[in-house]
Design a protein that fits this description.
- By secondary structure, the protein is an alpha+beta fold.
- It has three domains: 3-90 and 297-312, 3-Layer(aba) Sandwich (Rossmann fold); 117-179, ATP-grasp fold, A domain (Dna Ligase, domain 1, 2-Layer Sandwich); 184-264, D-amino Acid Aminotransferase, Chain A, domain 1, CATH 3.30.470.
- Helix content is 33%, strand content 22%.
- The chain contains nine helices and 15 strands.
- The chain has helices at 14-27, 72-83, 92-99, 101-110, 123-137, 159-165, 226-239, 270-276, 292-308; strands spanning 3-8, 31-33, 42-44, 47-49, 61-65, 87-89, 118-121, 140-143, 154-156, 175-179, 188-193, 196-204, 218-220, 244-250, 257-262.
- The strands form four sheets. Strands 13-12-11-14-15 form a five-stranded antiparallel beta sheet.
- It is globular, with a radius of gyration of 20 Å.
């Protein structure tokens, strides 16, 4: 019997998913420590504890999946937990790399994967180069480095407006910008579980350029083909992630498929979220992305295998 820790989201149906995952792991003989909020954890003398004093460093394996409760302390504690000998899924290094957009863009580019052209510039340098960037790219998006859900992303087509924007936040050290990829109405997403692309869907935009559900995007059936699943697996592998959602756009100018996001965690269990989430009014789950049971099966098997492996072998599978 092993001890497995779970830090799951409790909105959008996450509490139900954690309960189902816990029941599966307990049926295999494991002890599950759940309902962990890593934002409130702390390290004492090299061991990581929850706010109520539970020793997380006594765990064998730890899995986390909570997009809306990410924090700098959470990231620090994940690293401390790994250093204390716990197998953390996803590894904190991969989580950090995916969460920081310029880092992920560079790593994907170095792996030969198509990504948008990008810059990381001080406000003064961005204001100086605004006209050249707009001329070369047509338009660009300024992206907060670590936020998710489309929050804070701003598109510019006018160099003067971009230069003015750089004067707003005087405390900002640098801005991350990407070339805007014209893509029509649909993005493409592939879900990665235990390193394998298991399915996906699209989101139809209602926003001027964002497809995120939080920005009005509408879930749309569009199962990925073998090539897109393979590309998503390559992208997740390049970052070092075992669980992710990889987002793509198809450039309507040349048909090229470009990776625009490799999410640091799997995100949500779509079926359960669509049933209960206030973020969407669409409740009908298309069979092509009705994959909650499959995800739970893969995750249960993966955590079970990792927990039974010798400590030295609890590496990325």
């Amino acid at each position: 019997m092993a001890e497995i820790g779970l830090s799951m989201y409790d909105n959008d149906g996450g509490a139900s998913i954690e309960a189902r995952l816990t029941a599966r792991l307990e049926a295999l003989g494991h002890r599950v420590v759940g309902k962990i909020d890593m934002r409130e954890s702390a390290t004492r003398d090299g061991r990581v504890f929850t706010q109520d004093g539970r020793d997380l460093s006594a765990l064998d394996v730890f899995f986390y999946m909570d997009a809306d409760r990410q924090s700098p302390n959470q990231a620090d504690q994940l690293h401390a937990l790994e250093r204390s000998g716990v197998r953390v899924v996803n590894t904190p290094g991969a989580y950090d790399a995916a969460r920081d957009k310029p880092t992920a863009n560079q790593m994907l580019r170095n792996a030969g994967i198509s990504v948008p052209r990008s810059v990381l510039l001080t406000p003064r340098a961005l204001a100086r180069d605004a006209a050249a960037l707009i001329r070369d790219w047509g338009s660009l998006v300024v992206k907060p480095r670590t936020r998710h859900g489309g929050y804070g992303i701003v598109r510019f087509t006018d160099a003067g407006q971009l230069a003015d924007f750089c004067q707003i936040e005087t405390g900002v050290d640098n801005y991350y910008c990407e070339e805007f990829i014209p893509f029509g109405d649909l993005d493409m997403r592939v879900e990665i579980a235990a390193g394998t692309g298991i399915g996906g869907y699209s989101r139809r935009r209602t926003h001027a350029f964002k497809t995120n559900v939080s920005s009005g995007g509408i879930m749309t059936p569009n199962p990925p083909d073998t090539a897109l699943r393979g590309l998503a697996e390559d992208a997740a592998r390049a970052i070092g992630l075992e669980y992710s959602i990889v987002d793509f756009l198809r450039d309507e100018r040349n048909g090229r498929v470009t990776v625009v996001e490799v999410n640091p965690i799997l995100g949500i269990f779509v079926e359960e979220a669509m049933r209960v989430s206030p973020k969407t009014s669409l409740r009908e789950v298309d069979p092509s992305y009705a994959l909650d049971a499959r995800k739970l099966e893969i995750l249960t098997d993966h955590l079970d295998r990792l927990s039974r492996a010798p400590v030295a072998e609890r590496r990325i599978a």
